[in-house]
Please model this.
Amino acid sequence: MTQPADGAAAAPVPVPAPADEAPQAAEPELKPALEAVLMVVDEPATVDHLARVLGHPRRAVADALRELADEYARDRRGFELRLVAGGWRYYTRPEYAEAVERFVLDGQHARLTQAALETLAVIAYRQPVSRSRVSAVRGVNCDGVIRTLLQRGLVEEAGTEPETGAILYVTTNYFLERMGLRGLDELPELAPFLPEADQVEGESQEGMPSFDADVDADDTDDTGGADGTPTDHQPTS
Model:
């Protein structure tokens, strides 16, 4: 081993840190950290909450949020950072609402078939009503159509019928929203014109048409009467 030359100081030997002392994590850069957190929030995040989570002073967080909001506005980004209900959250910019709406609604709000509209009308005016009663009023099996309406969120289950135990169906708040109604009392006065179930049960067995204008994949059960007998209507092209 070589010895240090006369007058030369020996190099200091590094002292390892104790094994039980983990290195302290550096605080993340504030603005990128805020952007990352705000990407995943499901409700507006308050400045106090963000400051506590990110380990930065409240004033620094508040200033950074306002700077980010100004940067997005200045750069005309497709989104913006808003202070809403006491907290901060990302929102799409209003001028791009049409593009967002086209993307979100693409394929989700295809027009209902005539069969689905008829079934929905029966449920709306007769609710709470069972599947068998809806099928009796329409003269065809409505199981497939009701499944479609359930999937669309237009109807929902509402208990069972005491006498038979059959599931009852009612319309939803989403139905009112889509129809532009404040309540069921605003439905047009059409209920008196609907035939009674016992009136059509006999006729349906004779092949009463369901007036289906078109039938889609969701309407595959709407091809026969309640007893499985095919009706004499044909889907139009």
